[in-house]
Write a structure and sequence with these properties.
The structure holds 2 protein chains of 2 kinds. By secondary structure, chain A is an alpha/beta fold. Chain A has one domain: P-loop containing nucleotide triphosphate hydrolases (Rossmann fold), CATH 3.40.50. Helices cover 37% and strands 24% of the residues of chain A. Chain A has 10 helices and 10 strands. In chain A, strand 9 (210-215) and strand 10 (218-224) form a beta hairpin. In chain A, helix 4 (116-126) packs across helix 5 (143-155). Chain A starts with a strand and ends in an 8-residue tail after the last helix. Chain B has 2 domains: 7-103 and 185-270 and 277-289, Rossmann fold; 120-178, no CATH class. Chain B has a 6-stranded mixed sheet with strand order 7-8-9-3-10-11, with helices on both faces. The longest helix of chain B is centred in the last third of the chain and has 18 residues, at 199-216. In chain B, 49% of the residues are buried. Classes of the chains: A alpha/beta, B alpha/beta. The structure holds adenosine-5'-triphosphate (2 copies) and magnesium ion (MG) (2 copies). Residues 46-47, 88, 165 of chain A line the site of one magnesium ion (MG). Chain B: Residues 18-267 form the ABC transporter domain. Chain B: It comes from Oryzicola mucosus. Chain B: It is found in: Cell inner membrane.
Chain lengths: 270, 292
């Protein structure tokens, strides 16, 4: 079954005389229980795709179906419970004046769910946070601790679809390993579907069988990770993304600059 | 590879830009005091010095201590904490203001949080330039646009007029980098500066930083979780655990680290070309909390 189906999704920002087309007919399908990767250039529209699916933008055109049902632009309570999002920016997404406890209790209250204390204890354990941290404010937590609070908040309503926007880029590699294992466990146990945005292709390769590569509001291609890592991607940009992932290499940086200049900012070619 | 570890060690000995000896930072909490940094010593020359370590180990707190930007609840002490011959602990507010930006600059971990939400990003870059240079607003604007282009922002003119909430994560990060570049500091503390960038843009930005170290003698503290990046980009690596340094190695020797925590860090990395069912996680040991 298809959990998420996106067809010709487009969105424009800005006033009439100064419009920017941020998404241009984006289409892809994610199967139920799949972890689907979304990678690509910074500013290409990955977060925007997630925000449209989550119902945070209302002025998009095209079609979004969840479990086969088309969703409107408006955000319903049911959709909110079914689809949760972990935001890219762990500072901005937490209320500075709310403790961890308050942050995690709020969605439960809104949806009229009881047993608040037990659920919070469980979810904190799931994401590997010590119980005493529940009385802290965001500014008293490290970057990685904050991101785990954000993941806990998304999990606490037991959604069926998680939209993960760079969920581990603020985490050190040992905590990243813990969080990725946690995400895998929860998916195995509860059959969740993930849409995972990451700049780290090793993370994508660890979690996903398929991924979409984006550049400037367009999907360049949907490709199996095995093909990408085997050098069989169709698009030059996808191959360059993989090649540039290994390590810092000065001559590679020069090649990328040259490719961007030749393509007017975009890396073209098959 | 950039410079050899030996050359960079020599640079650090010759003319330390930053020297920290027995640096300690404690936070005054409602109940008691929390020791976040428990005696850290290192020196920085004209090199790329990485700080890695787990979340909460104190990397950002060390960076902010050098900038003297810890919150009022922080108690910062050290036997020595200097920038060249300036004692950072006893420096006046005025002196610190003079140093920040122009001489020591920090790229914060959370770019959007560090930007002013009610000014356009372009204005903020131009303003950073005008704080230290007496130029017309038109010239500052031109400089800011050039910097946006240098950090690979598409259509700099459009982005100049955007507010922080209207830019993507990686654009925010590059705006912070542009603000730093425009003030051309001697010491840069870069806290996860490229974590939100796609790898192609990341390489281009790193090349800019690399040039600043090689050509202008910048000293850089590079705080990062990305061990593969650190291994290939930096000269030396400090590994922190629970507010202390457990190990310092040449970047080229990162694979040969000894401490079990450092080894655990390397093992938990996902690999580009090899799929594993589960990622090994670190089994912590209380003895690691003791002095090393
Ligand atoms: N509210 C807004 N007003 C104007 N432009 C916007 C707005 N929100 C996003 N944009 C623009 O949309 C584009 C895509 O942004 P988005 O955040 O989706 O990128 P991204 O692929 O997630 O990038 P990153 O990897 O850097 O996070 C950017 O050029 C951004 O400036
Ligand atoms: N203002 C504060 N009040 C109380 N504790 C704090 C404060 N700021 C930081 N801490 C604590 O100090 C420790 C070090 O935090 P710091 O932000 O330096 O970690 P970090 O190594 O940068 O982590 P990350 O990789 O997650 O960014 C953490 O345990 C954190 O909770
Ligand atoms: Mg984004
Ligand atoms: Mg930090």
């Amino acid at each position: 079954m298809t959990a998420i189906s996106v067809k010709n999704l487009s969105i424009v920002f800005g006033e009439e005389d100064n419009e920017t087309k941020v998404l241009d007919a984006v289409s892809f399908d994610v199967e139920k229980g799949e972890v689907f990767g979304l990678v690509g250039e910074s500013g290409s529209g990955k977060s925007t795709v997630l925000r449209c699916i989550a119902g945070l933008y209302t002025h998009w055109t095209g079609e979004i179906r969840i479990d086969g049902q088309p969703v409107g632009a408006q955000l319903t309570k049911e959709r909110c419970r079914k689809i949760q999002m972990v935001f890219q920016d762990p500072y901005g997404s937490l209320h500075p004046k709310h403790t961890v406890q308050t942050t995690l209790a709020a969605p439960l209250r809104i949806h009229g769910i009881g047993d608040i204390d037990r659920r919070i204890t469980e979810v904190l354990r799931d994401v590997g946070l010590a119980p005493h941290l529940r009385f802290r404010y965001p500014h008293q937590l490290s970057g990685g601790q904050r991101q785990r609070v954000a993941i806990a908040r998304a999990l606490i309503l037991r959604p069926s679809i998680l939209l993960l926007d760079e969920p581990t880029s603020a985490l050190d590699v040992s905590v990243q390993a813990e969080v990725l294992n946690v995400l895998s466990d929860i998916r195995d146990r509860e059959g969740l579907t993930y849409l995972l945005v990451s700049h780290d292709l090793a993370v994508i390769g660890h979690m996903c069988r398929r991924l979409a590569v984006m550049q400037q509001g367009l999907i360049e291609e949907v490709v199996d990770y095995a093909d990408l890592s085997g050098g069989r991607a169709q698009q030059a940009y996808s191959r360059m993304l993989f090649d540039a992932s290994h390590h810092y290499d000065r001559s590679m940086a020069n090649d990328i600059t040259a490719a961007r200049q030749a393509g007017g900012g975009t890396i073209h070619g098959a | 590879m950039s410079s050899t570890p030996r050359a960079s060690d020599a640079a650090a000995v010759q003319a330390p830009l930053i020297e920290a000896r027995d640096l300690r930072v404690a936070f005054q909490m409602q109940r008691g005091v929390f020791q976040a940094i428990r005696g850290v010593s290192f020196s920085l020359g004209r090199e790329k010095l990485a700080i890695v370590g787990e979340s909460g180990s104190g990397k950002s707190t060390v960076g902010r201590a050098i900038m003297r930007l810890n919150p009022p609840s922080a108690i910062v002490t050290a036997e020595r904490l200097t920038f060249k011959d300036v004692d950072l602990l006893s420096a006046s507010k005025k002196e610190l203001r003079r140093l920040r930006g122009r001489h020591i600059s920090m790229i914060m971990q959370d770019p959007k949080y560090s930007l002013n939400p009610v000014a356009t990003v372009g204005e903020q870059i131009a303003e950073a330039y005008r704080t230290h240079h007496k130029v017309s607003s038109r010239e500052a604007r031109e400089r800011a646009l050039t910097m946006l282009e240098a950090v690979q922002i598409r259509s700099p003119k459009r982005v100049y007029d955007l507010y922080p909430h209207q830019v993507s994560g990686g654009m925010g990060q590059r705006i912070m980098i542009a603000m730093m570049l425009i003030s051309d500091p001697e010491v840069l503390i870069a806290d996860e500066p490229t974590s939100a960038l796609d790898v192609t843009v990341r390489l281009q930005i790193l090349a800019i930083l690399d040039d600043m170290v090689k050509e202008r003698g910048l000293g850089m503290i590079f705080i990062s979780h990305d061990l593969n990046l650190v291994r290939s980009f930096c000269d030396r690596v400090i590994i922190m655990y629970a507010g202390r340094i457990v190990e310092t190695v040449a970047a080229a020797d990162l694979d040969n680290v000894q401490h079990p925590y450092s080894r655990g860090l390397l093992n938990s990395l996902p690999r580009l070309d090899q799929k594993r069912d589960r990622l090994p996680v670190i089994q912590r040991d209380d003895s690691w909390l003791e002095a090393v």
